[in-house]
Amino acid sequence: MKSIKDLQKIKEQMLEEIQLREKDPGNIQVEVGMGTCGIASGAREVMQALLDEVTKRNLTKVRVVQTGCIGMCAEEPLVIIKQPGKEDVVYGNLDENAARQIVVQHLVNGTPAQEWVINE
């Protein structure tokens, strides 16, 4: 950071990320399991990849939030996508690349990414 302008840019980026984490029942909600097992398996990196991809694609009706343990430790990191009027989709065994592909395939194109779906 070299100037007030740099600080302002950092502030704006952080505010955008905070907005992506706020819950809104009318929007698509992406929940990332951030229990101890999830974090140990890479959930932080998955969450950051989701946030980056949602921001990059300007998906304003998508909220990325963290939740506690989802209960399927062997499948961590876990992500649940909740869309109004649709059945929840649970994804497991994710990494950053998978998270980015899920944003494109599920949130942009509207088709669950079957490769990582674990709740069928």
Across the major sheet, the strand order is 2-1-3-4
Radius of gyration over C-alpha positions, nearest whole angstrom: 15 Å
CATH superfamily: Glutaredoxin
CATH architecture: 3-Layer(aba) Sandwich
Number of strands: 4
- Give the % helix: 40-55%
Overall mean pLDDT stands at 89
* Total of helices: 4
Q: Regarding quaternary structure, how should these chains be classified? A: single chain
What sequence of helices (H) and strands (E) makes up the elements? Answer: HEHHEEEH
Notes on the protein architecture:
This protein has 120 residues and is an alpha+beta fold. It has a single domain (4-116), classed as 3-Layer(aba) Sandwich (Glutaredoxin). Helices cover 42% and strands 16% of the residues. It contains 4 helices and 4 strands. It has a 4-stranded mixed β-sheet. A hairpin with a 6-residue loop joins strand 3 and strand 4 (89-91). It is globular and about 50 Å long.
Task: For this entry, give a set of tags.
about 120 residues, alpha+beta, Glutaredoxin, 4-stranded mixed beta sheet, about 15% strand
Short description:
By secondary structure, the chain is an alpha+beta fold. It has four helices and four strands; from the N terminus they run αβααβββα.
Write the layout of secondary structure elements.
Blueprint: H1 4-21, E1 28-33, H2 36-41, H3 43-56, E2 62-67, E3 79-82, E4 89-91, H4 96-108
Parallel strand pairs: 1-2
Antiparallel strand pairs: 1-3, 3-4
Helix pairs in contact: 3-4
